[in-house]
Amino acid sequence: MYIYPQIKYDKEISSVSKELKADNIIELLKNQLPSAEMNTMVSSLDIFRKHLNQQRSFRPFGELIAKFDFDGREMQVWKISESSPQFDAYLARAQTLALWYIDAAQYTDNDDPRWQHYFVYVLCFLWKGVESVQI
User: Fold this and answer.
1) CA of 6: how far to CAs of 12, 59, 65, 69, 106, in Å?
2) What share of the chain has pLDDT > 90, as a percent?
3) CA atoms of 126 and 113, how far apart (whole Å)
4) Are 75 and 91 in contact (CB under 8 A)?
5) Which stretches are annotated as coiled coil (predicted)?
6) Taking the domains of the chain in order of start, what are their residue ranges?
7) Three-state DSSP class for 135?
8) Residue 132 has what pLDDT?
């Protein structure tokens, strides 16, 4: 999971009112990323596409515990019981997404052994015989 923000505008606020100053939105977004994950925000579309191509081979962490159909699409539930450095980095990026969509969301304590993480993925077919999942 990588971030490539594209910010477009017609005018800066300072051109409308001399009293107001535009926020540096990219800097504000970066401040929300976990410190170890600052490299997940990329500034080039080419680099972003390169990361996307690398992620085609992604396989979910943990154990597949359930499958179900939702709106004609196969959903898969994966349970992660044991942590690893790779999973911790993945979880940090996934939790960053939650902060944007869930009011009052907070990061989990990955050092607490009582935590078990569950992810639901949509099974996608890239081309005949090749599968991928999306969070």
Assistant:
1) 15, 28, 37, 34, 26
2) 24
3) 36
4) no
5) none
6) 1-55, 58-135
7) coil
8) 62
- Cβ-count burial 60-94 (b if 16+ within 10 Å, e if not): bbbeeeeeeeeeeeeebbbebeeeeeebeebbbbe
Single-letter amino acid, residue 12 = E
Residues 6+ apart with CB under 8 A from 94: 1, 119, 135
Q: What is the pLDDT of residue 66?
A: 97
Rounded to the nearest angstrom, the gap between the alpha carbon of residue 65 and the centroid of all alpha carbons in its chain is 22
3-state secondary structure 74-100: EEEEEEECCCCHHHHHHHHHHHHHHHH
**Angstrom distance (rounded) from CA 133 to CA 120:** 9
67-123 pLDDT tens trace? 999 999 899 999 998 888 889 888 888 888 787 788 888 888 878 888 889 999 998
